[in-house]
Write a structure and sequence with these properties.
The complex is a heterodimer of chains A (485) and B (483).
Chain A lengths: L11 E12 L38 H13 L3 E2 L4 E5 L9 E5 L5 E7 L5 E11 L3 E5 L10 E5 L6 E7 L6 H18 L11 E11 L8 E6 L2 H20 L7 E6 L4 E7 L9 E2 L10 H10 L4 H12 L7 H5 L3 H9 L4 H10 L11 H12 L5 H14 L3 H7 L7 H14 L1 H9 L2 H18 L6 H18 L1
Parallel strand pairs in A: 11-12
Antiparallel strand pairs in A: 1-9, 1-10, 2-5, 3-4, 3-14, 5-6, 6-9, 7-8, 10-11, 12-13
Helix pairs in contact in A: 2-3, 5-7, 7-9, 9-10, 12-14, 13-14, 14-15
Chain B lengths: L5 H10 L5 H19 L2 E4 L1 H16 L11 E5 L26 H8 L3 E6 L33 H8 L5 E5 L6 H7 L2 E4 L20 E5 L2 H11 L29 E5 L9 H16 L3 E5 L7 H16 L17 H12 L2 H14 L5 H24 L2 E5 L15 H5 L6 H6 L3 E8 L5 E7 L5 H14 L9
Parallel strand pairs in B: 2-3, 2-4, 7-8, 7-9
Antiparallel strand pairs in B: 1-3, 4-6, 5-6, 5-10, 9-11, 10-11
Helix pairs in contact in B: 2-3, 9-11, 9-12
Classes of the chains: A alpha+beta (485), B alpha/beta (483).
Amino acid sequence: VSAPDPTLPDGWEMVIGLEVHVELATATKLFCGCPNRFGGEPNTHVCPVCLGLPGSLPVINAAAVEYAMRLGRALRCEVRPSVFARKNYFYPDMPKDYQVSQYDLPTNVDGWLELPDGTRVGIERAHIEEDTGKSVHVGGGGRIHDADYSLVDYNRAGVPLVEIVGRPDLRSAEQARQYVTELRSIILAVGASDAKMEEGSMRVDANVSVRRAGEPFGTRCEIKNLNSIRSLGRAVGYEARRQVDLLTAGERIVQQTRHWDEDDGRTHTLRSKEEAEDYRYFPEPDLVPLTPSAHEIERLDGSLPALPAERRRALAEAAGVEPADAAIAVERDLDGLALAAIGAGGDPGRVLTHVEHNLAVEGADRLDAGAFARLVQMETGGELTATQAKQVLAEMVETGAAPDDVARARGFEAMGADALAAVVDEVIAAHPEEWTTFTTGDDKARGKLTGYFVGQVMKATRGQADGKAVTQLLRDRASAAAGRG
Amino acid sequence: VRAPGPAVALAAAVRAGERSAVEVVDEHLAAIAAGDGELHAFNLVTTDAARAAAAEVDRRVAEGEDPGPLAGVPVALKDNLCTRGVPTTCSSRILDGWRPPYDATVVGRLAAAGAVVVGKTNLDEFAMGSSTENSAFGPSRNPHDPSRVPGGSSGGSAVAVAAGFAPLALGSDTGGSIRQPAALCGVVGMKPTYGLVSRYGLVAFASSLDQIGPFARTVDDAAALLEVVAGHDRLDSTSIPEPVPPLRAGLDAGVAGLRIGVVRELSGGDMSPDVVARVRAAADALAAAGATVEEVSVPSTTFGLSAYYLIAPAEASSNLARYDGVRYGLRVDAPTTGEMYEATRTAGFGDEVKRRIMLGTYALSAGYYDAYYGKAQRVRTLILRDFAAAYERVDLLLSPTSPSVAFPLGAKVDDPLTMYLSDVCTIPSNLAGHPAISVPFGTGEAGLPVGVQVLGPALSEATLLRAAATLEAAAPAPVEVTR
């Protein structure tokens, strides 16, 4: 269990459950042969089926079912026989005025995913459903209520979605962000979706409530319109705070759906529970149940790639660190490179540091692991300073050249320890006043002046000095001076 | 060996070059022009397209090609079957002006078999009714007595065949909508096993019950039409993925050795005595032909009507939601979207459709689902079980098709519950997904035709048609429509 979210007053805890919709990366829509493609001239990717024309019937896309079940297995769900259901409500962007979804018998149930910090978050279900079209309200500020007229684009209607309903196991905005990041990595790993929040191929709704530690769950509000992981964090934080303020003031939370406004950083009432629709779910008679065989599920399991949590564990074990410290490498899909570089004799700490700080660049995944390991060895062996290593690495990524060649071409020769000490002493001698302050001043002053002295040494050596070594030398000289005094 | 049905004979003559398809179609168009003003079988007669299609059939014959088993045969289509570029109204104002951009699968199969569509036939709005009086375009009339209803909802198709406007027609049967009008108009009508005929392009009323089927003058013709339209279609997920066995081939095999059960629950006091008498005569005829006939109880059939009037409206309330004025058909403008929906649906739907949308919406509502829709589905399971038990003892079942002969226009239109009872004998087959056929078997009150119904288990079409052919051969001479 991680620390409570710092934005809430002591004694309060937030409880978050996320519902995430992802558009599946199929070539065609869920129930017809129209292309499943983002964009396009309005109403060009449509046919009688996805327009819900009278007499048309849906036929399930086998690839969508396959993706949904793969994702389900990656989320450790039980994949069960499932039944489509109609969710009935009127809306202009919904061609049939019902949405084909799943209700009491979803495809995937009872799974979990693991955050980098080791927290397991429950997945209640991950079901298949069709997307709706998009309404564009023209005039009157773009809101439906005071628009002059509205246009509807049905290109998105019938695009396959999986809705992943998480359990209310998250306890902070940071965990909510981590959950979505982790979920996205898993979705990408199994290839189920491109999961782009900004394009809407991944959409997140957050259920948020608060309670005093140890109390039962409070009344929740659902937040919509979260268009980035950052918005999610901000909105959840704001909403929890709003609820704590209300409760502290002796008021009650009203269960409602709220809209996150990115500009003013607040959530606003959209509708309350009393206005909630009765969707009149019933089994979709135009489709037959999905009944995956044990053999099929076994085949799915066999085809799953290594998932982020396993990859973090593998890298962490090889590097002798905590899984959380391997998270960035896995997120950037560079854990394979890191493992190979460590295997080829590169120092694990330096390898991870480079992956984290210096390899967030295009083409990093093409880096040769052996060459990367060699670079790290040159660095740890004192042939290159950290700064030089970074520059060499950048060129290696760009040109594919060997580290020794790059270092030679750039004239990077390791500075001997004696030579460096000589330069440091020269710099100290040249700045007596600063040095006195450095040796006698408080920590704050010393901190400031460390940067100053390192800068001077770097200048004198044209950047060839190792910053860490310089800092160490400065410390040694200072304590020697103190000893004399 | 019996003579082939008139439609089959026509096709044979056209294929052999003995008759011209254009001539055949023109004769039927002339009959429609002469008689349909009074009977109103058709919402639309597709004269030009029919002549063009017939000319194409003739051209192919002339060039030595075979246009198919129904070459040059005029066919009438119930106006809830989608026809590309041709208005498809469901006899509702709400589809005003809509022309489907595609053909129903059965329409494509008809064309591929050389059949010629002559028009779209009248129906109870969205197939909801038993008299064709619920049409927004006015009722169809029974050719045997135009003051009486032809039955429904596929009344127009039944009338078209009975009046000689077309030798064949297609209808749809959700609770008896093919069999009951067939019985009342004195023609053969069949509801096949659910999934035997693709529903793609059939405008849905109640998706789990709807099934397309044939109308014809004879059992042979009905079998020929069913052979053409039946068979797997990947566009309908509920379509049975099996090849359809030949249906015409065994028609002469008779019923010797077959066990046939007369359904006790559908023979009693709720049925008119004239109808009960004809069913008894039909049972005797089957026994005389060598079948073993006994009375069989199928207890839950009596609950069928109640279950049906929850399930069908529930599905309809969802299926008909899409008629909202946003995309096609009628739109009555109003200041807000919600008001536009309301104004459009108020103006576009007739009373019976509104009644069923409300019934179905209620039956699916939170808190009522289990008591109504859920329980109705359990009754459905019960009916399936009772049928299964009956089919352990017998091969086929026999019952009336309709509790009475054709009733006068207006007699039941203000009393929905009495009207609903018209389907009491036919509904159980829809709930079970089983096939059933109505065959004319003499006359009842006022000299009007009576149909008897033969029911069978799933995919028993061949046996069913064989029994129907036996009844047809034993039936009194058919009542001719004289006009």
